[in-house]
Amino acid sequence: QGMDAPAHVLVFPWPLQGHINCMLHLTAALLDAGFRVTFLHTEHNLSRLARAALPPGLRLLSVPDGLPDDHPRSVRSLKELTESMFTTGSAAYRALLLSLRSDSDAPPLTCVIADGIMPFAVDIAEELGVPALAFRTASACSYLAYLSVPTLVELGEVPFPADDPVRGVPGMEGFLRRRDLPRGVGRSEDGAFDPMLLAIAEGIAHAGKARALILNTAASMEGPALARIAPHMRDLFAIGPLHAEHDAAASLWSEDDSCMAWLDGHGDRSVVYVSLGSLAVISHEQFTEFLAGLVATGYAFLWVLRPDMVKTTGSVLREAVKEAGSKARVVEWAPQRGVLRHRAVGCFLTHGGWNSTLEAAAEGVPMVCWPFFADQQINSRFVGAVWRTGLDMKDLCNRAIVQGKVREAMESGELRGRAHAMAQQLKLDVAVGGSSSSDLERLVGFIRELRA
Ligand code: UDX
Predict the structure, then answer these.
(1) Are 225 and 141 in contact (CB under 8 A)?
(2) Which residue is closest in CA terms to ligand 1's atom 25?
(3) How many A from CA of 125 to the centre of ligand 1?
(4) If you take atom 23 of ligand 1, which residue's CA is the nearest one?
(5) What's the confidence (pLDDT) of residue 158?
(6) Contact between residue 214 and residue 26 where contact means Cβ atoms under 8 Å apart
(7) What keywords sit in the KW lines (predicted)?
(8) How close is the Cα of 247 to the center of ligand 1, in Å?
(9) pLDDT at 162
(10) Per residue, what are the HEC states of 190-240?
């Protein structure tokens, strides 16, 4: 490959919102470094995406995800999506890599950066002679917990719901409880062992086979976990929070920008922003408890209620919110990073997804976490007990808890002070000379080297 042709990277996210967003931020960073980037969506997502905000110069390609177009891509169908991506999706990906060999529109691929949740994407690329790096979109603390699953099983520290201290995740013995461990789809209230967990953990450890693992985190937030992960990887890059320097997200839902003008009409730090991310679903009872708790705080609130989030139809929910008082604003999808940057937002009631956690951290907004599944359980423990930039509701959801935690997050100077300090530190991390910025530079060099 001629050294004058730019490096060409194929970026392949898992086809869900939280994965697409941060891999688009990564893409923007690679484009800034002068690379060619091809971004691989599923056909279904490509047809849903708002393309306006995509970085210029980005090439989009797609593979089928294997599900019928009208099939929901929700948390309830994650298992089906996984199965079809690992069969139909992976076969189409292999064919695509082969066809790119004789592609006259772009230089040959230098490497693939594949979502670390898809081991096949790494294996197939390497098999076809294309170097593959793995990118995990979640936190380093959750990564380490998944890596520790075999030990956790051996020690009998799963199943989860319990206050018992966990000894099986190195470096977290002092504060991690079983309730804080990552878990599979759905909230297993009965504590039954989730067989999916072993499969997920195995898939995650697979990144050790890739040329390197890239994490969207900063050493200042997760240094100890990063140090424990590094020996399992061929190389490790901690380059987050990516959106702070390269915001290039694209939504699968249409953003309701009208809430920005609504925020403009409110005083500084007087509004609670409520969003449970792209996958969480809640029961009608949980909706009612959240609503009553929020109303009882007396604060105005902006609430993201996705159309697929509560079984009850949207109009019934909106009516319930309207009846509860005029201080509420409901949207189906918000321009979240803009909302969190807005001076009117005082705290963030969130599920603790890793993107949301980083977005709040970068703006210094205190959080109240109600984790739904996967990495969110351990993220929220770090928010509440390690960084202490917010409060963790964990598995409890009733109006008194919502009211109490939200009030405290809105009013505590200590929480706000720590959140603010973390935001300051993260600004340094992503600025030239900072740890994340240096690791990004090292990553760019690493990819250039692959061409040689
Ligand atoms: C889940 C995981 O928990 C997360 O850690 C993992 O990396 C991806 O899968 P998700 O439920 O999508 O993620 O939450 P989160 O990681 O917070 O991502 C949601 C994204 O959607 C964020 O970038 C957020 O800014 C955006 N968003 C959310 C909006 O733009 N508008 C909204 O109204 C809500």
Answers:
(1) yes
(2) 336
(3) 28
(4) 355
(5) 81
(6) yes
(7) Glycosyltransferase, Transferase
(8) 14
(9) 86
(10) CCCCCHHHHHHHHHHHHHHHCCCEEECCCHHHHHHHHHHHHHHCCCEEECC
- Quote the CA–CA distance of 69 and 134 in Å, as a whole number: 28
Q: Please give the full DSSP string across 362-400, using - where no structure is assigned.
A: HHT--EEE---SBTHHHHHHIIIIIS-SEEE-TT---HH
Prediction pTM value: 0.97
Quick one: DSSP state of residue 335?
-
Q: Which residues of the chain have pLDDT under 50?
A: 186-188
Pairing of strands 390-392, 367-369: parallel
Q: Give the β-pairing of 132-136 and 59-63.
A: unpaired
Taking a C-beta distance cutoff of 8 angstroms, is the pair 376, 141 a contact?
no
Ligand 1 pocket, 17 CB below 6 A?
yes
- Residue 373 Cβ contacting ligand 1 at under 6 Å: no
User: Hey, which residues are catalytic here?
Assistant: 19, 115
CA–CA separation, 302 vs 297, rounded Å?
A: 13
Identify the pLDDT of residue 159: 75
Structure tokens at 238: 């901690």
Burial class from Cβ neighbours inside 10 Å (0-12, 13-18, 19+) for residue 57 reads: exposed
Residue nearest to ligand 1 atom 2, measured at CA: 353
Ligand 1 centroid–CA 275 distance in Å is 9
pLDDT at 153: 87
CA of 357 to the centre of ligand 1 (A): 9
Tally of CA atoms within 13 A in the half-sphere of 115 that contains its CB? 24
Ligand 1 neighbourhood includes 336 CB (under 6 angstroms):
yes
Place of tokens 């210029």: 56
Ligand 1 centroid – CA 19 distance (Å): 8
Which ligand 1 atom is nearest residue 280's CA?
Answer: 11
Q: Is 251 in the pocket of ligand 1 (CB under 6 A)?
A: yes
Residue to probe by mutation, ligand 1, list 356, 376, 379, 382, most atoms within 8 Å of CB: 356
Cα–Cα distance for residue pair 355/139, rounded to 1 Å: 9
Contact call for residues 294 and 303 (beta carbons, < 8 A) = yes
Q: What is the pLDDT of residue 105?
A: 85
Complete DSSP assignment for 253-299: S---THHHHHHHTS-TT-EEEEE-TTT--B-HHHHHHHHHHHHHH--
pLDDT at 79: 87
Question: Mapping DSSP to helix (H, G, I), strand (E, B) and coil, where does residue 54 land?
Answer: coil
